[in-house]
Amino acid sequence: MGLREAQRAKGGYQESAQAGEFWRCTLIESETRLRAARGLAKNETEAAIEAFAQLKSRGHEHSPPPLVSDGWGGYDVANLVEVWGKVPEYRGRRRPPSKKKPQAGWQYLQVVKQRARNGRVIGMKAKTIYGDEQEVLELLGASTSYVERTNLTSRHMNGRLVRKTLGYSKELKMLRASSIWEDMVYNLLGRALKKTLRIESPKETGQRWLKRSPAMAAGLTDHIWDICRAPAQEVVDHVFPASRTPSTSLAPSSSPMSS
After folding, report:
1. Taking the model in full, what pTM does it have?
2. What is d(CA 160, CA 177) in angstroms, rounded to the nearest whole number?
3. For residue 97, what are the contacts with CB-CB under 8 A and spacing of at least 6?
4. Percent share of the chain, pLDDT over 70
């Protein structure tokens, strides 16, 4: 947001809590491509924690769903433990435990890209962090290509994320608003995914394919929304807390998540 790091240094501008470089983390349900949570912060670690905390409040209160991510630093094991970990029960011996620990049943896979000296990707290595290696690989798959695709989709849908542009956000609250609006349009209208998520229609309809949005694929709605019906008030409520009203959370899901 604001000027890029090199531009800010050249002009003598300083990084602050409301301006400078920001990171965004997005969690996607792999089967339906639904964007289930997002985080926006000054660094990748804080953005990941914010996204995980949002996902926790949306139906995954006690444990994270199966997760797959790349090897980027923000998606660290410590962040999962910070959000979902629990302090072990004190057994009456030695000093009482104070640090959170991971819990049984977690499934987490990292797909680490291997690069040549020129930066070109020459391979990928799957690293199982939690869970049985074979089971986790079969469930999650050793690929994050759809995550890379949604990053490109975001830059096409949201002009504030385009590289080297004059359309960058000037205020943090407007950057958050554009991110919320983008995810809402992506989930409910799903124009970028109508072919990816389409299924065969019943013969009586006379159509071969039934186009679906991510929200339809996840069972949150039964039709593709029109932009005129999009709940713009939800964006206002998130950006301006003083006018915030209770909103409907995403339905709980046990499907794998990607970041």
Report:
1. 0.79
2. 11
3. 87, 88, 90
4. 81
